[in-house]
Amino acid sequence: MARSGLGIGVRELAEAAGVSTNTITRLEKGEPLKARTIEAIQSALEAAGVEFIPENGEGAGVRLKKNSNE
């Protein structure tokens, strides 16, 4: 959802996170990844403007950060 919300492709996210496109595909399929790989992908998404929302009784989620110019 985060990648789609940003409008970026698998290749762009993989490059930003320093991982392979196959790794992004595996993540999106729900396959297990090493913690440091997940952290790298999360950091890349956060740098691009994604905010991760913790579990609040209805499940964890993501949203795009508000533009500071608004």
UniProtKB/TrEMBL annotation:
<dbReference type="GO" id="GO:0003677">
    <property type="term" value="F:DNA binding"/>
</dbReference>
<dbReference type="Pfam" id="PF13560">
    <property type="entry name" value="HTH_31"/>
</dbReference>
<feature type="domain" description="HTH cro/C1-type">
    <location>
        <begin position="11"/>
        <end position="52"/>
    </location>
</feature>
<dbReference type="InterPro" id="IPR010982">
    <property type="entry name" value="Lambda_DNA-bd_dom_sf"/>
</dbReference>
<protein>
    <submittedName>
        <fullName>Helix-turn-helix protein</fullName>
    </submittedName>
</protein>
<dbReference type="InterPro" id="IPR001387">
    <property type="entry name" value="Cro/C1-type_HTH"/>
</dbReference>
